[in-house]
Amino acid sequence: MARYASLYGLFLLQRFKVLLEYRLNFLIGASSTVFVQAAGIATLWVVMRQVPSLNGWSFDELLLVYGLLTASRSIEHMFADNLWTIGRQYIRSGGFDRFLVRPIDPLFHLLADRFNHDGIGNFVIGTLLVVSAWASLGIPLLPLYVLYAVLAVLSGGAIFIALNLLTATTAFWIVESVPVTRAVHEMHEFAKYPLSMYHKGIQAALTWLIPYGFASFYPASYLLGRDVGWLVWAGPAVALVLLLVAYRFWLFGLRHYSGTGS
Amino acid sequence: MSQNQPAIEVSHLRKVFHIPQRDPGLGGAVKALFRPRYAEKVAVDDISFSVPPGEIVGYIGVNGAGKSTTIKMLTGILAPTAGLVRVLGRDPHKERVANARQIGVVFGQRTQLWWDLALVESLNLIARIYEVEPKRYKELLEQFSYTLELGELLAKPVRQMSLGQKMRAELAATLIHEPRVVYLDEPTIGLDVVVKEKIRAFIKEQNRAKGTTVVLTTHDLGDIEELCSRVIIIDAGRVIYDGPLATIRERFGKYRGITFETARPLEHPLTLPPGAEVVGQEERRLELRFDRTRASASQVAAAVMGQLEVLDFSLSEPDLTSIVKQIYGGALSEARPV
Questions:
Q1: Largest Cα–Cα distance of chain B, in whole Å?
Q2: How confident is the model over A147-171, as a mean pLDDT?
Q3: SS3 letters for chain A?
């Protein structure tokens, strides 16, 4: 564990050295997401100018939901972006074999191989949104609440990563896994808004099937004192179970790969 | 591990791939989704050999013969369908991580270095991945910098390197953890003679100094002549020759080619010395081969020049690919070394 942590640190250091070499590229990448997010928030703001509340949620409350989701997603974006391109960049080219002849875990190697700085912008935006919504909503700055919010974002990030790991593993069979990953990943758009405004079926899907709800709606409800039951505490457990399932599936895919090769 | 244990042991190794089959068009794609059909492809049929520690073996065969599938099983990337593989006494697939510490692999033109990183940074990372002791790493880096002339390359990212520089960098990266078994897939392909020589010398030196076992796949007869005391030739997933290089050259390299450029097209059949025959003929080009144990190049050239006006001619050594073809084309029984 300590070995992997220090190795990750070294991978990260090398990555930043490269990024600093391409300073302009780094700045554009890290800030491009800011513009995308700004457009999303502007749309929300325009809508909320017309209707003061959406399904009983105020603009600031919606920003909290949006911010929690954005921060969660940024974790996947920063640390697990290579899952998107595993088929195209590693399996098709045979580059994945390189991981298998090294004495470290191939999944660790894949993830550590490329920290994606584009996610930094998302992380900053998400955090700023949560902080500003927190302030304007007058949520008390209790250690419990802060800890809860941090844990919620980490669990949300883990859910994003686990779902991408599940879908990226299909690359071992179909090579080009991006459409599968995208199909599932895009469902997170729903979770940018409170689940309570959707049909029961969609609510259930985003809670039990593709549980992005735990990255935004449930923790926001808890912080706002809205009663949605015990589910506000389920985020970390859901994340853990999903990670385990995804990792088992990954191992299964890996076994298939060693049977067939690329 | 005892001293007499082979570095590599392969026994009745077999690998069968199941290739999904589908009819063309959308209908085919849908049908394949619900009722997949598979065709069997035997990549490695039945291969057995054993390599003692410190040997350099040439592992050759035409494309598709099963070379890379064998190497993938030896490195632990692929699991065998049947048979046994042991590298330094370990099952490379089941004990993948333990095996990985002891082996080094150069995969043809695929780099194992990070494209954008300066070479020295890539080497630092690799040394950490393999947990090379820092003091030892420093020594090796110095050694390799000298023998592979890495000096000015250390600060260069791989993407800016020439093919020859890349291969030198690649070798340093592969050997920095002092593996006991090394697999080299086409290490000199596309390189000029000078770089080829450097690389061969480096491999030889590593083998001599550290007793590194080397499995080399190559199309380059020069690599084999300079490095390998033993050659294993495979075709269609089977070993068709396993023995010293000398025997192959004697038995299958006995033909040489000679090509003439003539002033006019050939009009009547040539009279040639025994052992020589025409193998190809174009407008004003004539290709012959002759058995050098029966005729000399000058005899053949003189015979042709006496019958035709020759503008130019050239001699060629048989390349390994044609030897492999020859062996496959029925000369198998001759090939067994005594």
A1: 74
A2: 97
A3: CHHHHHHHHHHHHHHHHHHHHCHHHHHHHHHHHHHHHHHHHHHHHHHHHHCCCECCECHHHHHHHHHHHHHHHHHHHHHCHHHCCHHHHHHCCCCHHHHHCCCCCHHHHHHHCCCCCHHHHHHHHHHHHHHHHHHHHCCCCCHHHHHHHHHHHHHHHHHHHHHHHHHHCCHHHHCCCHHHHHHHHHHHHHHHCCHHHCCHHHHHHHHHHCCHHHHCHHHHHHHCCCCCHHHHHCHHHHHHHHHHHHHHHHHHHHHHHHHHCC
> If pLDDT is split at 50, 70 and 90, which confidence band does A181 have?
very high
The overall average pLDDT reported for chain A is: 92
In CATH terms, the superfamily for domain B8-249 is P-loop containing nucleotide triphosphate hydrolases (3.40.50.300)
Does residue A115 have a pLDDT over 70?
Answer: yes
B297 in A contact zone (CB under 8 Å): no
In the predicted model, is pLDDT for residue B334 greater than 50? no
pLDDT band at A210 (very low <50, low <70, confident <90, very high): very high
Give residue B218's pLDDT band: very low, low, confident or very high (50, 70, 90). confident
pLDDT value at residue B320: 63
Whole-angstrom Cα distance, residue B84 to residue B69?
14
Lookup: tokens for B175: 């050997």
**What are the residues whose beta carbons fall under 8 Å from the beta carbon of B6, sequence distance 6 or more?**
B50, B51, B52, B53, B86
Distance CA B227, CA B222 (A): 8
Number of domains in chain A: 1
Closest-approach residue (CA) in chain B for A101 = B100
Q: Which two tokens stand for residue B63?
A: 């494309």
Least Cα separation, residue A216 to chain B (angstroms): 36
> Is A157 in contact with A214 (CB distance < 8 Å)?
no
Å from B35 to nearest chain A CA? Answer: 15
Structure tokens at B325: 């073809």
B330 sits in the region (left: phi over 0; alpha: psi -120 to 50; else beta) called left
The per-residue b/e assignment along A99-117, b for 16 or more CB within 10 angstroms, e otherwise, is: bbbbbbebbebbbbbbbbb
Write phi, then psi, for B154 (nearest 5 degrees).
Answer: -55, -35
Give the type of residue at B267: E
Q: What pLDDT is attached to residue B328?
A: 59
Tokens of B104: 């080094």
**Mean pLDDT of all residues in B248-263:** 79
Q: How confident is the model at residue B337 (pLDDT cuts 50, 70, 90)?
A: very low
Give just the sign of the alpha carbon dihedral B71, B72, B74, B79. negative
Rounded CA gap, B290 and B101, in Å?
A: 49
Residue numbers of B between 76 and 135 with CB closer than 8 Å to A: 76-79, 93, 96-98, 100-101, 103, 105, 107, 110, 112, 114, 116-117, 121, 124-125, 128-131
Domain ranges of chain B: 8-249, 254-317
pLDDT at position B338 over 60: no
CATH number assigned to the domain covering B254-317: 3.30.70.1560
- Domain that residue A9 falls in: 2-260
For the stretch A227-243, pLDDT in tens is 889 999 999 999 999 99
Q: What is the mean pLDDT of chain B?
A: 87
